[in-house]
């Protein structure tokens, strides 16, 4: 199997599905410009033409309703937003129309639509370019919500989302775009709702979403050197949720930390803590802990932003508390910093 | 030019539908206070000629989208009084099983692709539906109906812009009763003429003030021809008078936000009565008209009773059709 990046995996998923099904089209603000949504829609215009890959007016609200109208009339739209925050302009269409259209029609109309949206972070992205919102979207019946972390899952979930006859929101972290890993050229028929054990362990379960999996894996790698075995689980799909994968793991380890790429309050971590409490109460050795953004808007300036986002060290510290460990020696450890990847200006 | 026979047939058909819709709504008025139709009614009375004239100009395979005030549109497009009353009562016999109600009607088999109770929200959906028709090159037209309050929403302008940019086969129909709920245009608009503004877009925009279904049919038919020839969206603003309160089945002139005098002016040209007179002028015998009316009344009454006596769906239906 060859290694490709997360971004290439997304691109390949769309190209293959567009090739296989002429009803699939991709559209959104700047989808067909020279930058092609960070490269994820590269080559699609050239291969499939402007009828199936096109940029739109800056009308997130109407263009979301537009996708719904195309979907109930035989097409399979992929609507792309360069930031999740921009999608909020279309909340009416998502919450009042798309999520309930099939229900309203008593199943007579289906909405096979995908909405891809990118989460921004760092170098001044701040409070209007950094939201994830998965718990808000997953809160509403009638929407599926996925947020893949690995390149392989990026491809598999996008293929499954395109083939799904329901509206699916796919949330992609911008920092994951350059991550490379093994990705199969041909994706087996797949469906949404499978989580993935990213690292097996037996002492404690960390359920992480999106970028927080990178931090969780780093924490697990460091703690492994100190004899602590951390299991890292990526739910991949927020709705439907692979509950069994998570509860099986917690039943095994007796401890659960949710590291969510979002605010903690009323978030996905709260939902997961409730599920784990309900289903694993007898085996839990400690309360479920939640890690997430500071309960503030995302700031611009770097040192405040560093405080705003949780990281591998926060996860390590929480594990230390839960397992009653000595403070881990982190000297010599190398932590992710975007400055190593990206230097401004934009 | 139409032959006399064709014109007579057309007008008979228009009257049949106008009378059907009026009879259905009068039946609702008569029974609404029994409190069994538990769905907020936004009545079409006074507006019937718009839906009837336009749907007559459309073909059965064309698509329409409506609003929470879509009784007339639903009946004009589907003619299905059984389904209509069953959904008003929320019974198992309705194709929507009571999940839609009066405000969210839908009948895809008849090309009625949905209605929204959020002002302007179905307009972009109609544009996307038109895009799919254009892609399929199937010749189908989409007509999307909305009130004049929709022009206060950004979504209307976004959708109009996108449709004009993409040259979509879509007809925007503004059913203008001068009020957004209870607020007149003078309190809502920073411009004077909607059609003047819309006509600056790359579409063909017309307006008319008439309760004559035939005139609306003719205007729409011509507009559709022009839209096809010029490959542009169309826009129609048609004025009417809402006979009843915003929601509910009563008049509310005592509330003071509009005048009885204005209503009386309009009522002189009530679309149903006007069309009846036209039939007489076209030589239809009163007895024959009455026979048609009785036939319609009996049909409506049958549909109504069927719905009233039907059972509700199983409670398990609650959980169905959320996701595929």
Keywords, separated by commas or semicolons:
heterodimer, A: 346 residues, alpha/beta, Rossmann fold, 2 domains, 7-stranded mixed beta sheet, 19% strand, globular, B: 324 residues, 6-stranded parallel beta sheet, two-stranded antiparallel ribbon, 46% helix, 12% strand
On the 0-100 scale, what is the average pLDDT of chain A?
Answer: 96
What structural category characterises the helix and strand content of chain A?
alpha/beta
CATH class of chain B: Alpha Beta
- By DSSP, the count of extended strands of chain B is 8
Outline of chain A: globular
Distance between the termini of chain A: 35 Å
* Global outline of chain B: globular
Q: How does the major sheet of chain B shape up?
A: 6 strands, parallel
Could you say what the CATH topology of the largest domain in chain A is called? Rossmann fold
- Which CATH architecture of the largest domain in chain A is right? 3-Layer(aba) Sandwich
The helicity of chain A comes to 25-40%
Count the domains of chain B. 1
- Based on the coordinates given, report the CATH architecture of chain B: 3-Layer(aba) Sandwich
Walk me through what this model shows:
- The complex is a heterodimer of chains A (about 350) and B (about 325).
- With about 350 residues, chain A is α/β, with parallel strands linked by helices.
- Chain A folds into 2 domains: about 5-180, Thiamin diphosphate (ThDP)-binding fold, Pyr/PP domains (Rossmann fold, 3-Layer(aba) Sandwich), CATH 3.40.50; about 195-325, Rossmann fold, CATH 3.40.50.
- Chain A contains 12 helices and 14 strands.
- In chain A, helix 8 links the parallel strand 10 (about 205-210) and strand 11 (about 230-235).
- In chain A, helix 1 (about 5-20) packs parallel to helix 7 (about 150-165), helix 8 packs across helix 12 (about 310-325) and helix 9 (about 245-255) crosses helix 10.
- The longest helix of chain A has 15 residues, at about 5-20.
- The two termini of chain A are about 35 Å apart.
- With about 325 residues, chain B is an alpha/beta fold.
- Chain B has one domain: Thiamin diphosphate (ThDP)-binding fold, Pyr/PP domains (Rossmann fold, 3-Layer(aba) Sandwich).
- In chain B, the strands form 2 sheets. A 6-stranded parallel β-sheet of chain B has the order 2-1-3-4-8-7, with helices on both faces.
- In chain B, helix 2 (about 50-55) packs parallel to helix 3 (about 70-80), helix 4 (about 80-90) crosses helix 11 and helix 5 (about 120-135) packs parallel to helix 6 (about 155-165).
- The interface of A and B includes residues 65, 77, 101, 104 and 109 of A.
């Amino acid at each position: 199997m060859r290694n490709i990046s997360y971004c290439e995996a997304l691109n390949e998923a769309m190209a293959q599905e567009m090739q296989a099904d002429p009803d699939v089209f991709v559209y959104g603000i700047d989808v067909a410009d020279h930058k092609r949504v960070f490269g994820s829609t590269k080559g699609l215009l050239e291969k499939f033409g402007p009828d199936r890959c096109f940029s739109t007016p800056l009308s997130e609200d109407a263009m979301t309703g537009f996708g719904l109208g195309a979907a109930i009339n035989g097409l399979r739209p992929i609507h792309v937003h360069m930031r999740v925050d921009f999608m909020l302009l279309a909340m009416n269409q998502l919450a009042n129309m798309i999520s309930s259209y099939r229900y309203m029609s008593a199943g007579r109309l289906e909405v096979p639509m995908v909405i891809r949206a990118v989460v921004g972070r760092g170098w001044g992205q701040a409070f209007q370019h950094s939201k994830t919102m998965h718990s808000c979207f997953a809160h509403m019946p009638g929407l599926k919500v996925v947020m893949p972390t690995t390149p392989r899952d990026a491809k598999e979930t996008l293929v499954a989302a395109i083939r799904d006859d329901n509206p699916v929101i796919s949330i992609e972290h911008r920092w994951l775009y350059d991550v490379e890993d093994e990705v199969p050229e041909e994706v087996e028929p797949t469906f949404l709702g499978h989580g993935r054990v990213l690292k097996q362990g037996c002492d404690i379960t960390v359920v992480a979403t999106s970028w927080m999996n990178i931090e969780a894996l780093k924490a697990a790698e460091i703690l492994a050197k100190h004899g602590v075995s951390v299991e890292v689980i990526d739910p991949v799909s927020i709705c439907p949720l692979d509950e069994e994968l998570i509860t099986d793991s917690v039943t095994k380890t007796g401890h659960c930390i949710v590291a969510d790429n979002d605010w903690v309050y009323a978030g996905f971590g709260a939902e997961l803590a409730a599920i784990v409490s309900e289903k694993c109460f007898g085996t839990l050795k400690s309360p479920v802990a939640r890690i997430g953004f500071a309960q503030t808007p995302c700031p611009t300036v770097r040192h405040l932003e560093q405080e705003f986002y949780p990281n591998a060290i926060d996860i390590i510290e929480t594990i230390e508390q839960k397992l009653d460990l000595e403070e881990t020696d982190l000297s010599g450890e190398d932590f992710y910093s975007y400055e190593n990847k990206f230097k401004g200006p934009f | 030019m139409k032959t006399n026979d064709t014109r007579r047939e057309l007008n008979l058909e228009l009257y049949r539908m106008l009378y059907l819709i009026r009879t259905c709504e009068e039946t609702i008025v008569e029974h609404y206070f029994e409190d069994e139709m538990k769905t907020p009614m936004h009545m079409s009375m006074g507006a019937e000629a718009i839906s009837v004239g336009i749907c007559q100009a459309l073909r059965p395979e064309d698509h329409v989208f409506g609003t929470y005030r879509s009784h007339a549109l639903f009946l004009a497009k589907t003619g299905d009084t059984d389904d209509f009353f069953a959904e008003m009562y929320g019974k198992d016999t309705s194709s929507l099983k009571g999940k839609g109600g009066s405000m969210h009607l839908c009948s895809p088999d008849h090309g009625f692709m949905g209605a929204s109770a959020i002002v302007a929200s179905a307009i972009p959906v109609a544009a996307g539906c038109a895009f799919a028709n254009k892609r399929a090159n199937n010749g189908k037209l989409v007509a999307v109906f909305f009130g004049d309050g929709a022009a206060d929403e950004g979504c209307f302008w976004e959708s109009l812009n996108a449709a004009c940019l993409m040259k979509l086969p879509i007809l925007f129909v503004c059913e203008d009763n001068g009020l957004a709920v209870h607020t007149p245009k003078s309190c809502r608009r920073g411009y004077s003429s909607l059609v003047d503004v819309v006509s600056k877009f790359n579409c063909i925009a017309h307006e008319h003030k008439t309760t004559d279904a035939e005139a609306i049919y003719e205007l729409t038919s011509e507009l559709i021809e022009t839209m096809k020839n010029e490959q542009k969206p169309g826009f129609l603003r048609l004025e009417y008078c809402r006979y009843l309160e915003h929601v509910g089945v009563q008049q509310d002139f005592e509330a003071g936000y509009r005048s009885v005098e204005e209503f009386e002016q309009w009522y002189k040209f009530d679309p149903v009565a006007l069309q009846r007179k036209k039939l007489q002028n076209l030589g239809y015998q009163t007895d024959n008209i009455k026979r048609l009316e009785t036939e319609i009344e009996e049909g409506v009454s049958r549909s109504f009773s069927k719905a009233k006596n039907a059972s509700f769906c199983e409670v398990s239906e609650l959980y169905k059709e959320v996701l595929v």
